[in-house]
Amino acid sequence: MTKTINIVGGGLVGSLLATLLARRGMRVRLIERRPDPRSASAYAGRSINLAMSDRGLRALSLAGLDDDIRAIAIPMHGRMMHDQQGSQTYQPYGTEGQFINSVSRGELNKTLLSAAEREGVELVFSAACTHVDFDNAGATFACGDGSTLKVEGDVLFGADGAFSQVRGRMQISDRFNYSQSYIEHSYKELHIPADQTGGFRIERNVLHIWPRHSFMMIGLPNPDGSFTLTLFLAHKGPVSFEQLTTSEQVQAFFDEYFPSAVPLMPSLLEDFATNPESSLVTVRCSPWVVNDRVALIGDAAHAIVPFYGQGMNCGFEDCRVLMECIDVHGDDWASALREYERLRKPAGDAIADLALENFVEMRDKVADARFLWRKKIEARIHAEYPSKLIPLYTMVTFSSDIPYNEALRIGREQDVMMEQIMSIPSVIADWTSAEAQAEIRAVMETRPDIVIASGSPRQR
Ligand SMILES: Cc1cc2nc3c(=O)[nH]c(=O)nc-3n(C[C@H](O)[C@H](O)[C@H](O)COP(=O)(O)OP(=O)(O)OC[C@H]3O[C@@H](n4cnc5c(N)ncnc54)[C@H](O)[C@@H]3O)c2cc1C
Distance, CA 71 to ligand 1 centroid (Å)? Predict the structure, then answer.
């Protein structure tokens, strides 16, 4: 029997989910609070981009959209670190041919909505969910024209983001666990325009980082030659947004900490004054499924800080794994949703932890010589023993078969081993010497191959 599915939230995850369910023959309605971003009247501001990696692309391939997105993406092969004196250091993300992709958030959302429409999804815009009915997998919406919309179906998904209304209703039900924590840093988006000829003012195919220990700025390229910059800085304290209230203070701060970027940012003061300071939250909750019929997905289930560039990728992976669960369990949605939660909740918790840890790596460790030295040794060992060591970044970013929780576990074990290797005197003296290489080999030969628990549903 055809199932009727309602999805609250037509952001990145909701629109991919709608497309994938419609392709499986379900009747799908996607209801979004904002107006249609594809309409002429929708606000067209400056590009905001995000990093898409293998997990996201694999989920998009299920909808036949991965090549469309690759076509509008800019590959980023590594990090370019800019120190305070203006020197640059490059660190590749993986091996030759491995890269992440800078994609326009707006274009991605529009592409996904159009794909959903093509698959027959009913799209409803300007309708904000105000109430959720667990018994009937239903919801009520306040519409832009003043009317009220009520929907019911077989299953309701909350894909309505970090401040989910669907989750909000769950929060006031018995035995629902919920935590929300803000980090002390906020962020503000800034801008490097293209040069006069439409070219890039700094290296195009990298993710730029200006690490300053307790804070940082990053830059991702856009197809129009510009870069979207994001400043991550404490909200309060001696060096913080709170201290940057006048143009003079902003200019002095940038002159001191980002002198090489200042000449590239002609609209710095205007952007700083105009663009909001936004906070960064981690949300964890359980269960994700109520009454076997109402489920959370994407940021609604697991909002994380953006430092691993995985929030959207994780939400897209939720969609892929959910489709696998549906394929395995057929019409038995209760089992499919239970299996989805069993597989994805640990993954969501793990990427939340990894994302928090990666902030320290990006803003501080990437500027540290020992860290860069370790990365080089790790890369060499991985090349020689790919079944025994996989760098954590590679597992998270360039694999879609290793669940995040497995990447976290394996990464912790590898940390211990790498510390052992890096304390070998010959490695400290010169890790490329024959003696050091022999000692590294001695450690690696005794190490078993990595065993990875599957992130896919059990076949029945
Ligand atoms: C600064 C920053 C940088 C990031 N960079 C990356 C990155 O590089 N890579 C990456 O993978 N991830 C990144 N992320 C995370 C990524 O943006 C999110 O994980 C992703 O947008 C989640 O998608 P979603 O559809 O679950 O939620 P959202 O994108 O938040 O979509 C939710 C949708 O629900 C709608 N909605 C909300 N409430 C209601 C309601 N009551 N009724 C109806 N509709 C409603 C909203 O309007 C919205 O359209 C970043 C996040 C931030 C903050």
Answer: 22
Distances (CA, A) of 33 to 120, 140, 454: 20, 12, 36
Domain span at 12? 4-73+104-180+282-360
**pTM of the full predicted structure?**
0.97
Whether residue 205 is found in the same domain as residue 325: no
* Residue 80 forms part of a structural domain: no
Give yes or no: residues 254 and 392 share one domain: no
Which atom from ligand 1 is nearest to the alpha carbon of 187?
1
Atom of ligand 1 lying closest to residue 15 CA: 25
R_g over Cα of the chain? 23
**Domain presence at residue 459:** no
**Residues 122 and 211 reside in one and the same domain:** no
State the distance from the centre of ligand 1 to the C-alpha of 49, rounded, in angstroms: 12
Cβ atoms of residues 8 and 14 within 8 Å:
yes
Cα(53) to ligand 1 centroid in Å equals 16
User: Ligand 1: distance of its center to the CA of 82 in Å?
Assistant: 29
CA of 299 to the centre of ligand 1 (A): 6
Q: How far does the centroid of ligand 1 lie from the alpha carbon of residue 161, in Å? A: 5
Residue 303 contacts residue 288 (beta carbons within 8 Å): no
Ligand 1 atom with the shortest distance to the CA of 51: 8
| φ, ψ for residue 57, nearest 5 deg | -65, -35
Q: Is residue 58 part of a domain?
A: yes
Residues having CB within 6 Å of any atom of ligand 1: 8-14, 31-34, 50-51, 128-129, 159-161, 165, 187, 230, 298-300, 306, 309-313, 315
Q: What amino acid occupies position 121?
A: V
- Hey, which of 6, 7, 12, 319 would you mutate to test ligand 1's pocket, going by the most ligand atoms within 8 Å of its Cβ? 12
Q: What are phi and psi of 214, to 5 degrees?
A: -95, -5
* Nearest to 313, CA basis, from 274, 284, 354, 261: 354
Q: Are residues 301 and 170 in the same domain?
A: yes
Statement to judge: residues 175 and 185 lie in one domain: no
pLDDT tens track, the chain, 460 positions? 789 999 999 999 999 999 999 999 999 999 999 999 999 666 566 678 999 999 999 999 999 999 999 999 999 999 999 999 999 999 999 988 999 999 999 999 999 999 999 999 999 999 999 999 999 999 999 999 999 999 999 999 999 999 999 999 999 999 999 999 999 999 999 999 999 999 999 999 999 999 999 999 999 999 999 999 999 999 999 999 999 999 999 999 999 999 999 999 999 999 999 999 999 999 999 999 999 999 999 999 999 999 999 999 999 999 999 999 999 999 999 999 999 999 999 999 999 999 999 998 888 887 788 888 999 999 999 999 999 999 999 999 999 999 999 999 999 999 999 999 999 999 999 999 999 999 999 999 999 999 999 999 976 6
Give the whole-angstrom CA distance, residue 449 versus residue 452: 10
245 and 335 fall within a common domain: no
